[in-house]
Amino acid sequence: MPESSPKRNSDLMQFADLGLRLAVVVAVFTYAGYQLDAWLSTAPWFLIAFCFTGVTAGMMSVVRGVNRWQAAEAKERSEAKERSERPKST
Q1: What span, in angstroms and rounded, lies between the C-alpha atoms of 71 and 14?
Q2: How far is residue 42's CA from residue 36's CA, in Å, rounded to a whole number?
Q3: Cα separation, 66 vs 60, whole angstroms
Q4: I want to staple 47 with a disulfide (CB 3.0 to 4.6 A). Which of 33, 42, 60, 73 is the partner?
Q5: Residue 32 to residues 18, 39, 51: CA-CA distances in angstroms?
Q6: What is the pLDDT along the chain (90 residues), one digit of tens a residue?
């Protein structure tokens, strides 16, 4: 089994965080909709509305996380390029 770099492990953990964040947000919103429906006897309207709201909020969170990751990667690449283009002082 090949050894993985700390950078790769960090990236994998960030994407695992995004997936868990999406699942938790959808679950919390769906549960809230279910409880509202039980309390107000309006089944299944709040469940459906909150489920869609949870999916939307979760996807927005994932998109923001991916954009943040891409910005950090671009910054890291540009810094590495600048370091490689700098003349070496002797």
Answers
A1: 14
A2: 8
A3: 10
A4: 33
A5: 21, 10, 9
A6: 456 677 778 888 888 999 999 999 999 999 999 999 999 999 899 999 999 999 999 999 999 999 999 998 999 899 888 888 877 665
